[in-house]
Design brief:
Length: 225
């Protein structure tokens, strides 16, 4: 049976793309980013396999199984990298992407927000691990945090639109405006936080700035909703 109130397609796609961007910021090598791309394709197939489209796009259990295999393969690849630090950079983001994908598919509507929130939590934990084990710079940590929150917000927005309207309703403009506003605010907040950190005007640690950024962008997302 077709679920007519699934999360809207564009917002779902933007959420997955932003989750991939967050992961790629933390995982800078070519091999890591090829793995991220494979996972993104896999999650996209899982999400598309549970929907019906007017245009011919992958649907059905075969595509879902192929997508799931790509995602699992990417995660296993990330766990077996020769350098453990590269695994720390990569695996939490891949798991977060997969959870966001399960949220915007979704298998059951009532679990959609739980999966998306879990995906955000895993990605933020990944940021913290990179900060602890690598002493990564503020740009990578703050940028990855902002992108992860923007991914969560886009997914939540798509879920809300899907609940209020049918999935096939025309929501492209509002989805682009909403996600664009959150992303722009997040980017501006990152710039301000980096300036504060570089010039030491606040005496805050990098960890405190990451928490403030997360709080600021999350607050905007909630207010904008």
């Amino acid at each position: 049976m077709t679920v007519s109130h699934r999360p809207t397609p564009l917002a779902s796609g933007l959420a997955l793309l932003l989750a991939a961007v967050s992961t790629a910021i933390l995982a800078p090598t070519v091999g890591q980013r090829v793995t991220i791309l494979a996972a993104l394709v896999g999650v996209g197939l899982v999400v598309a396999g549970g929907r019906e489209f007017e245009v011919p796009l992958p649907q059905g259990t075969v595509w879902t199984a192929l997508g799931a295999a790509l995602v699992l393969g990417a995660i296993l690849r990330g766990e077996t990298l020769a350098d453990p630090r590269q695994s720390i950079e990569l695996v939490p983001g891949l798991v977060g992407m997969a959870l966001v994908g399960l949220g915007v598919r979704p298998v059951r509507q009532r679990f959609a927000r739980r999966f998306v929130s879990a995906g955000l939590a895993i990605m933020v934990v990944g940021v913290a691990l990179v900060g602890v084990f690598e002493a990564a710079g503020p740009l990578r940590l703050l940028g990855a945090t902002a992108a992860a929150i923007a991914a969560w917000d886009a997914a939540e927005h798509g879920i809300s639109l899907g609940e209020q309207l049918r999935t096939d309703a025309e929501t492209r403009a509002v989805s682009l405006l909403h996600t664009g506003a959150t992303s722009a605010y997040g980017a501006a907040t990152v710039v301000v936080a980096i300036l504060l950190y570089d010039y030491g005007a606040t005496g805050l640690s990098l960890g405190a700035l990451v928490l403030l950024l997360a709080a600021a962008v999350t607050l905007l997302a909630l207010l904008y909703r």
